[in-house]
């Protein structure tokens, strides 16, 4: 008996999710020319999509990464492209000639470089500058997932991205000045909390752990002590 077979899935069954994913791949592939350094090959995007949603961390962290790799993150360069009345320059370094692009914001900015250097991975921001920001993120996460069985390094990388994004939003919405000590305290605190929660989730320890809709997206409850990130992203709740 003949039947319809959807060749883009192992089961051969079509779903809206798979159809949307394929359409998005085609759109992203057609948007860039073959010589465009921001172009992500369809094979690499397909593979990364499979591992992205299985990465450790809250959903909002993964959504941030998804927006980075699909060029849908609301940064100054996008505002300028759409002729919106907004600050197009980098809010963290304050340099007048630095347009807030994905590459500058997450990798090349002097403030971001300090976060990467101060993280547990000790990444140098000047390495890999020949590729676009989204490819840089994809390459690092793909490498770490393949080498990091415990997911500690992977979670540290994602936490660094989240901390940079939070610092930028503090400058934009709260008018706060950049403080490296506060940035690293936030990074270490969120990473420690997320790592404890991930250990409980992955090893099924006798504790109630969950990703929640808090400021940083992670809270953990233990029978003896509640460890979490409060609404101000500062300190532990007890």
TrEMBL record:
Pfam families linked: zf-RVT
Source organism superkingdom: Eukaryota
Matches recorded under InterPro entries: RVT-Znf
Stretches assigned to the Reverse transcriptase zinc-binding domain: 45-116
UniProt name for this protein: Reverse transcriptase zinc-binding domain-containing protein
Organism listed in the record: Saponaria officinalis
């Amino acid at each position: 008996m003949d039947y319809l077979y959807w060749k883009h899935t192992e089961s051969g069954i079509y779903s809206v999710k798979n159809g949307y994913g394929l359409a998005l791949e085609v759109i992203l592939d057609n948007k860039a020319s073959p010589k465009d350094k921001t172009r992500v090959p369809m094979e690499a995007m397909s593979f990364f999509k499979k591992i992205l949603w299985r990465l450790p961390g809250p959903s909002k962290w993964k959504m941030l990464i998804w927006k980075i790799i699909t060029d849908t993150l609301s940064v100054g360069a996008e505002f300028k492209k759409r002729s919106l009345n907004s600050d197009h320059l980098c809010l963290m370094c304050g340099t007048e000639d630095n347009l807030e692009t994905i590459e500058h914001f997450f990798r090349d900015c002097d403030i971001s470089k300090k976060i990467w250097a101060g993280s547990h991975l000790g990444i140098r921001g000047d390495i890999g500058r020949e590729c676009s920001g989204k490819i840089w993120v994809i390459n690092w996460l793909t490498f770490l997932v393949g080498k990091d069985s415990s997911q500690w390094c992977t979670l540290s990388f994602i936490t660094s991205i989240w901390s940079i994004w939070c610092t930028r939003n503090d400058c934009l919405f709260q008018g706060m000045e950049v403080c490296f000590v506060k940035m690293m305290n936030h990074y270490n605190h969120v990473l420690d909390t997320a790592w404890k929660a991930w250990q409980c989730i992955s090893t099924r320890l006798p504790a109630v752990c969950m990703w929640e809709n808090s400021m940083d997206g992670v809270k953990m409850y233990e029978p003896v002590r509640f460890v979490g990130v409060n609404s101000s992203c500062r300190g532990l709740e007890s």
